[in-house]
Amino acid sequence: MGDTNTGTSEKPAAVLIVEDDPVSSELYSVQIQDKLPAQCVVCDDSRKVLPILVQHNIDLIILDLNMPHISGQEVLAQVNLQFPDIPVVVVTSEDSIQVAVDCMRHGAFDFITKPVAEARLITAVQHGLRIRSLQQEIHSLSDRLQGLQIRNPEAFSGIITVSHHMRSIFSYIEAVASSPKPVLVLGDSGTGKELIAQVLHQLSGRSGSFVPVNVSGLDDTMFSDALFGHTKGAFTGANTARSGLVEQARGGTLFLDEIGDLPMGPQVKLLRLLQEGEYYPLGADSPKTASVRVVAATNANLTQKMEQGEFRKDLYYRLMAHTVRVPALRDRMEDIPHLVEYFVTQACAELSRPRLQVPQEIYRILAGYEFPGNIRELQSMVFDAASRATGAQLPVEPFRTYVVGPPSVPDASGIPQGGGTSISYAGQFPTMEQVEQFFMEEALRIASGNQSRAAGLLGISQSTLSRRLKTE
Ligand SMILES: Nc1ncnc2c1ncn2[C@@H]1O[C@H](COP(=O)(O)OP(=O)(O)OP(=O)(O)O)[C@@H](O)[C@H]1O
């Protein structure tokens, strides 16, 4: 089934079949359990329906209208009154419009006449279960959002924040963590999207691993090989079979970073994986079944990308089943002092030096800054300043220079000429590649060769910087 691994609940749904004819109930049961992730319970006495609903979590009812003791219509009315969220699929031998209208009026979800065609039964049950799962999700979300109670504060301990907006995001994360549907994490570069993906995995209760992969710019073959693996001899040099990241993440979470920069070709393959729960390793004739939860992140504007025909709408709608929008640091400036303290502690531990004190002046300087590189940029600034400290305090000067004054004086071309690197174009205007190369080298120089910090200065991820440096 298409959605079995990636689209619906992993726990089998409970279907109650209310039918006094054992042949029919057995047939429905076998057909449903064969085609859907569902467990059927049969009830041949309509008087027992309500007690069963009280004692068990039933997700959907198949109800024969012609029952002895209490009629199907009466059971339907009772269920609709006491358990309005449970979809009821009515089955009857009466092919009458009036009966159908009556049932719908009394809250039936669907109406099927006997003899029951298997495909019709399966579609009705599938639709009913989907509605049921959406209802449960909405209840869970509104419960969580109303209370803003964080049930697992320890899971969020690595995400430093005092922002009310971030706390509401934590609450949402807790609500959707155990859902098997994809999560799309949106936000500017360096806002903490990967941290959020890790917490989603941690709270998902999944026993498999968290497997991150940066998919930016991967072509068709690179994408298939990385995610799906290959068979022995699939291409020249494929001397042994290799399983891909989807297999590594079996029972866990596959984190697709920079999904907005995935080219169109591989987007089709990803869509198929999400829709069918299946994939073909390179060189394989038969598909493999995937069992992963997908979390994707991007700092790109996907709406714009879809308008420009660079991102598939069907893929977007698959991925955004749950969406988390992480606010930029400039929209939660109240977090800055807490983040600075946190990073100072980290930096001092890494540099094996006593904890530095943070002068208030630093906060005044940072209050006027926009942070295009967000938290990664702040982290780099703090680490850089901590490594320059000579006394007991975090030095103010590196922050002032960074925020207030440019590190070097630009010449007429607008390109800074300070530092050890320069760009010369002898009357010819530099190309974008040259400009990009210049700034990457400049950032690396300022960050003393530390790629992660250089990436922070440039407002891009470390993996993107590393890839761009390799392709230069
Ligand atoms: N709230 C936070 N508390 C502590 N550290 C944080 C927080 N948010 C982000 N960080 C740190 O900032 C850095 C960047 O975070 P992360 O990689 O999760 O961002 P991202 O949004 O995925 O970036 P990109 O879009 O560039 O991939 C990491 O070192 C992360 O640990």
Q: Could you please describe the fold and organization of this structure?
A:
The protein folds into three domains: 13-135, 3-Layer(aba) Sandwich (Rossmann fold), CATH 3.40.50.2300; 148-327, P-loop containing nucleotide triphosphate hydrolases (Rossmann fold, 3-Layer(aba) Sandwich); 331-471, Helicase, Ruva Protein, domain 3. Helix content is 45%, strand content 12%. It has helices at residues 22-35, 49-55, 72-82, 97-105, 118-147, 164-176, 193-204, 220-228, 245-248, 264-276, 302-307, 313-319, 336-350, 360-367, 374-388, 397-403, 432-446, 451-458, 462-471; strands spanning 13-18, 38-43, 60-64, 88-92, 110-113, 183-186, 210-214, 229-230, 242-243, 253-257, 278-279, 288-289, 293-298, 322-325. The longest helix has 30 residues, at 118-147. The two termini are 45 Å apart. Residues 1-9 and 416-421 have low confidence and may be disordered. The structure holds adenosine-5'-triphosphate (ATP). Adenosine-5'-triphosphate (ATP) binds at residues 159-161, 187, 189-195, 257, 297, 299, 339, 342, 375-376, 379, 461.
**Strand order of the main beta sheet, please?**
2-1-3-4-5
CATH architecture of the largest domain: 3-Layer(aba) Sandwich
Poorly predicted segments: 1-9, 416-421
Beta-strand percentage? Answer: 5-15%
Q: Compute the number of helices.
A: 19
Termini separation: 45 Å
CATH class of the largest domain: Alpha Beta
CATH-defined fold name of the largest domain: Rossmann fold
Ligands (ions, cofactors included) = adenosine-5'-triphosphate
Main beta-sheet annotation: 5 strands, parallel
Percent in helix: 40-55%
GO molecular function: ATP binding; sequence-specific DNA binding
Keywords: ATP-binding, DNA-binding, Nucleotide-binding, Phosphoprotein, Transcription, Transcription regulation
InterPro entries: AAA+_ATPase, AAA_lid_NorR, CheY-like_superfamily, Homeodomain-like_sf, HTH_Fis, P-loop_NTPase, Sig_transdc_resp-reg_receiver, Sigma_54_int
Protein name: Response regulator with CheY-like receiver, AAA-type ATPase, and DNA-binding domains
